[in-house]
Design brief:
The protein has 8 helices and no strands. It is mainly alpha-helical. It has a single domain, classed as Invertase/pectin methylesterase inhibitor family protein (Butyryl-CoA Dehydrogenase, subunit A, domain 3, Up-down Bundle). Bound molecules: 2-acetamido-2-deoxy-beta-D-glucopyranose (4 copies). This is Pectinesterase inhibitor domain-containing protein.
């Protein structure tokens, strides 16, 4: 009797470990991406984000491509949020609350600043000018933090927390990629 009942649970456990370890390794990133993402606060997010662009992972993936991809994603993210803010401002509940309105108006300015910083970074990449990339990525990231901060004193939950954190996470990748150019 004892033999099977001892053996089969351990085989099951081994099989389970095999399954879970292989499924968490969805993307095995190339060395350059691996090195970049190790320097960010969320490795998985970083790898998934960069690999969301189908060009990433091919043999000719280089820092230029990763620059375009990371700033491109940050650009889409910031413009999307920026265009959402006027919608929130028109919302009936917002209209009842002057402090919330004020915070959203400030956020709109911060997001315009973020969008133009990312645009400038993108143009810099196009013209092989790399010295400002890091600081432009930080301007965009700080704009998201400033937007979040402008809700201080209004009622929680703040309406843009998720989006602000999202832009900051993308900007963190931009900063690490930008450091490849220095
Ligand atoms: C890292 O990012 C993933 C999404 O890509 C998320 O599911 C996970 O919770 C994040 N981890 C931390 C510690 O924030
Ligand atoms: C929020 O505002 C209060 C007082 O107005 C201030 O003491 C506090 O430092 C502010 N918090 C943040 C995160 O800015
Ligand atoms: C408006 O915001 C203030 C804080 O800024 C809060 O005390 C108040 O409850 C809010 N009013 C409405 C109608 O949501
Ligand atoms: C931007 O980031 C937020 C937060 O992670 C996310 O919810 C949103 O889908 C992103 N938007 C785009 C267009 O990538």
């Amino acid at each position: 009797m004892g033999f099977h009942s001892l053996l089969s649970p351990s085989i099951l456990v081994l099989f389970f470990i095999f399954l879970t370890s292989s499924s968490s390794e969805v993307t095995k990133p190339i060395k350059l991406v691996d090195n970049i993402c190790k320097k960010t606060s969320n490795y998985t997010f970083c790898v998934d984000t960069l690999y969301s662009d189908s060009r990433v992972g091919s043999p000719d993936t280089d820092s230029y491509l990763l620059g375009y991809v990371s700033f491109g994603l940050a650009y889409i993210n910031a413009t999307t949020t920026s265009s959402q803010i006027p919608v929130l401002l028109k919302n009936a509940n917002t209209q009842k609350n002057a402090s919330l309105q004020h915070a959203l108006q400030q956020c709109h300015r911060y997001y315009k600043k973020a969008v133009s910083a990312i645009e400038e970074a993108y143009n810099d990449l196009n013209s092989d000018t790399y010295s400002n990339l890091i600081s432009l990525a930080k301007v965009a990231s700080d704009s998201a933090s400033d937007c979040e901060g402008s809700f201080n004193g209004t009622v929680k939950p703040y309406p843009l927390t998720e989006r602000n954190n999202g832009l900051r996470r993308l900007c963190e990748i931009c900063v690490v990629v930008s450091k490849l150019f220095t």
